[in-house]
Every structure is written in structure tokens, then in C-alpha cells.
């Protein structure tokens, strides 16, 4: 909230600056002027929401200034402060939609009340207008309203928006690229808020704003910028975006990228929106760039990656680094040839994924389960966002697959995890599938491996652990036997008694008496 005080008496201006508790009222900055010429200059160079204005001044009256504000359709509320009580002045002020009319000497208590009323009115008006503007642009860009020139301009007039036929707009496709560690530390909502907050602050510093900032999908946005004297063209917009990019990197530590349309008329915005989002959402090279639409597109070419057979061989030999080197070299070669299109990237990723799943299947590892964790989900979702994300996805995929395959081959490690889980969760329902999910192995393969290493089946091992836990409770507590049965994972007393006798040689009741 910015305020402008205009009075030719410097003492009056100084008193108003000092005696009104502006900051407590929510005012960020108070500008001053001592004549109409200075006042107009301040208004033209800054966003002013409230004016406190004298009437009689040497170089023009405050009413003349107010008339100019109304002619320019500037949304500025005005409070007249004057030493003159003439009815004509008051009448003219009312005609010019003056908020209030106060006689000097000023009663600062009364003035504060009027300013509070003005600020409340301004905020309500800004909120209402913002809602109208947002709805207008959403309907236009999503083609819920006509973009035919004459009908659209009629709608602009009906909604009392100040867009003119000759005005132009720049649409911006924006993307942010937080790493996995940042998404783990901050929620998506926090990252989204940080982007929008920095965006708004930077645009405000340049005395500019977006008409609308739309969420497209996770971490992608579309903004509409209205060109005017302050932001006059693509060069000015690019400078603002550069500042946004620098601030996001410095304050939040993540990358961003932008693609701008050429300046277009308001009735061309819907078509431009469609073209921009369709192309830029598939642009792997937007990150860390501020490009103009259309971006430098990759050339379509036949998809025939010779390295796929090499990758398959490297995987069979568990050679993680050679696999990643082959992938990096292929990506680099395609980028240099400018043939690395979204389609090529998608096909190559699917081919490598198929090799990885086959590699894991040969080792009895269920790949679809291995990659169901949150981190894998993040890399999968972001893989085709940028070249950097694409490479990171492969690094995660290959590293996780090869390292886990190496771990699974050490059967002792797998069995230790399984037995440890049984020890901690014996009271729950446990079967081969439950345990296979934990170690990402095929259930039948796990059953065979477990029996080979322990000498007993998974089910018998679970029963053995449950009975041992029950023996401890029988010997050291007076908990009823039927409760112990349920607490150690058995569904009923009779089955518990049967298994207990098979393993211990006596019933639970006989065992308790023996231990007394």
C-alpha cells in the first residue's frame, strides 16, 4: 500500500508524514509532492493507492489533479485536506468521487479513522478486481469464452477492465526444477509458494505484475504480462525473468527456466497459450534458459540407438559405471546433433527401463517393487522435465538396480533382513509375499533361498519365533494363555496349543506349570 501526500505547505506535509502511524496502518511507503506537476510525476512512476491532497496550490488545484486521475482511470482513493470550507469545493470533490473531505487544522484521530476506512475500501476493491481479472483470463485461455475480437472487447467493457485493442501481452511458460533433496525437505506447497512469492517480489521491484499466474502441473506455470511504459517489450520482460531466476537460485537453491511468446494482442492470447504450453512442456532444454517462442527445436530423426546392446552387456556384468557412461555419451551425441527430441528421449528411456527390468528379473528381483519408493517416484515423474532431470533419473535407476542386485546376491544379507523383520513383527500376519515385498524378491525364490540358508521353511521359522516369544511370556508373566496366543500372532488358542506341543513337546499350560 503506497500513499501520496500533496500540499504546497512543507510543514503540513512533514506533520502528516510524522503524526500518522503509517506502518501500523499497513502502508509500506509514503511519497510526497508540493505541487501538481510533482504529484503527477510520482503517480506516473509509482503505484499509488491513496492520495491526501490540498486544494489550493500555486501551480494548480488538488481538484484538477483528482480530475486527471479520474480521466486516466487510475484506481486511487483520495482524501481532500483543505483550509477552505466553500460548498463549491466540497461539491466538486464529491462529483470526482473523493472519499472524504477534511478541514485544516487536521484532527489526526479523525484522519486516522478516515485512512483506515480508505485502506479497507482499497483492499476490498483490489480483491474484487483481482478475482474478476483472474476469472477473465482463465475463461479466455481455457477457451470458455470467445476470443473473437469484437465480442471479446465487448466482454472487457462489460467487466469494466481497462484493456485496450492496441495493447499487447507476452505469455511466459515458467518451470522450476527443485532437486529430490529439496522436495524431501519442503512440501510441494512450500516450493510453489516460494516461487510465486519471489516472482511477485521481483516483478513489484520492476513496477510490473502478471495479469495472471496459472498453475499448469507440478512446478510448471503460465503467466500473462501486460506491456506498458514500464515494461515495454521482450527485452524488459527478459531482464525481469533473469532477476527472478537469480533470486530463485540464491534464495531457494533451485534452477528455473522460462520461454516467452512474442507480443500478441488480447484476442491472440488463447492460441498463443495453447501453442506455448504444448511445445514448452516437451522442451528438455528450458532449464536455466530464458528463450523466446518458438524455442530452438531439435530435429526429428530415426530412432536407432546402437548403445542399447552395449548397455545390456554392461548390465549383465554388473558394470554400473560403464552403463552410465554409455547413456551419457548417447545423450551428449544426440544433443550435439540437435536430434534429441522429446519422443527420442521417451523411447530411449523406455528401452533402458526394459533392460533394467529384465536384468533384475534374471536375478529374481521384482523391479516394479524395487522402484516403488518415494525417491524413485520423484525421478520418474521429473525425468522428461529437462536434460539434467533425465540424466539424474538414469543415474538413480541404474545405481539402485545394480547395487540392489549386488546386495541380493549376498543371500546372508537378504536372510538377515527377513529374519529381523520376523523377530520384530511376529504378532502380525506374515507370509512369503509379505517378506518378498520387503526385499523385492520373487516370493517362490525367496522361499527356496530361505530354506537353503536356514534349513527350515519361512512358515516354520515364523511359528518357531512365535512359540519362543510365547514361552517367555508363559514363564515370566501371568497373562492368560488365550491372550498370549493372540499376542504372539495365532488366530485361536487351539491352533496355538497344537503348534506349541509340536515344537516344545508339551501344551502351553503344561509348560507354564513346569516353569513355576
TrEMBL record:
Residues 416-514 form the HTH araC/xylS-type domain. Signal peptide: none annotated. InterPro entries: CheY-like_superfamily (IPR011006), Homeodomain-like_sf (IPR009057), HTH_AraC (IPR018060), HTH_AraC-typ_CS (IPR018062), Sig_transdc_resp-reg_receiver (IPR001789), Tscrpt_reg_AraC-type_HTH (IPR020449). Pfam families: HTH_18, Response_reg. Keywords: Coiled coil, DNA-binding, Phosphoprotein, Transcription, Transcription regulation. GO terms for molecular function: DNA-binding transcription factor activity; sequence-specific DNA binding. Residues 108-135 form a coiled coil. The modification 4-aspartylphosphate is found at residue 54. Residues 2-119 form the Response regulatory domain. GO terms for biological process: phosphorelay signal transduction system. SMART domains: HTH_ARAC, REC. It comes from the Bacteria. The keyword DNA-binding applies. May play the central regulatory role in sporulation. It may be an element of the effector pathway responsible for the activation of sporulation genes in response to nutritional stress. Spo0A may act in concert with spo0H (a sigma factor) to control the expression of some genes that are critical to the sporulation process. This is Stage 0 sporulation protein A homolog. It comes from Robinsoniella peoriensis.
